[in-house]
Structures are given as structure tokens and as C-alpha cells.
Amino acid sequence: MPNYQYICMECQKRFEVYLTYDEYGTHPVDCPNCSSKNVQRLIGRVRFARSEESRMEDLADPSALAGLEDDPQAMGQMMRKMSREMGEDMGPEFDEVIDRLESGQSPEEIEEAVPDLGGEAGGMGGDAMDGLGF
């Protein structure tokens, strides 16, 4: 049976009611706290599934990539979104670069501040910023 969320308009308490599909809309709902019939249904979050192809198409949208080289914060936000959409943990170096970009540091400033980021010690190999898409 689905649960439905309500709020009482008298006592402002939220509560859930379990109703069958047949009962919903025909069965009166009373507040369990104050017994008021003056209740309003709340609409919960809605989720929808998307294919990996659909998610990747959104990420590759050229309009979303325009001007990123001039805006470190937008670049960091885009990289964080890409990481979430891919569902992979990119490691602490990647998170540090994103945090620095979102704080406004340019890729060049990040490379100067953390010269060995992603080098042999970091395990990413090569130039750190190149390895992260710079």
C-alpha cells in the first residue's frame, strides 16, 4: 500500500497515511494528533530514471561548455556534475582540484599551489592538470 503525506492545517503536524489505491480520495483522512479533518496532502519528491546515454548527452551539450576556460567556478561546478553523473569516485586529488576551482582559483594557480598534484607520488601520472582535463 502506498503511503501519503499530509499536513494538518489546524495543528501544523505532518503525518503519513497508508491507503490502498481504491481508498485514496474516497477514505476520509483525519489528523492523528488533533483529529481535525482539515488536512492537506503533501506531494513528495519525484524521481525518474535516465539512461546513461541521456546523462552523457546532457553533459556534452556545447552550450554548457561555452566559456568554461574563463570561469574557474563554472568549470569546477561542471566537473563536479560530471563526476556525479558518471557515478565514479575520482579520488582526493580530483576533489581538491574541484574545490579550488569552485573557490575561484585558476587552473594555473592550482598547478602552482600544488605542483606534485597527480604526479608520480599522486598516482595519476603525467601533468596533473592535463590528467584532469586541462
Can you tell me about this structure?
The protein is of the alpha+beta class. The protein folds into 2 domains: 3-42; 52-131, no CATH class. The chain has 6 helices and 3 strands. It has helices at residues 52-59, 62-65, 72-86, 92-102, 107-113, 128-131, and strands at residues 3-8, 14-18, 39-42. Strands 2-1-3 form a 3-stranded antiparallel β-sheet, with no helix packed on it. Strand 1 and strand 2 form a beta hairpin. Helix 1 (52-59) packs antiparallel against helix 3 (72-86) and helix 3 (72-86) runs antiparallel to helix 4 (92-102). It is elongated, with a radius of gyration of 25 Å. It starts with a strand and ends with a helix. The model is unreliable at 120-129 (pLDDT under 50).
Write down the overall geometry: elongated
- Could you state the order of secondary-structure elements as H and E? EEEHHHHHH
* Discrete helix count: 6
Number of distinct beta strands: 3
Uncertain regions spanning at least 5 consecutive residues: 120-129
Number of domains: 2
Give average pLDDT, whole number: 79
Q: Largest beta sheet: what is the strand line-up? A: 2-1-3
Overall structural class, as computed from helix and strand content, comes to: alpha+beta
The share of residues in extended strands comes to: 5-15%
Alpha-carbon distance between the two ends: 51 Å
Task: Please state the CA-atom Rg, rounded to the nearest Å.
Answer: 25 Å
- Main sheet makeup: 3 strands, antiparallel
Helical content (DSSP H or I, runs of 4+): 25-40%
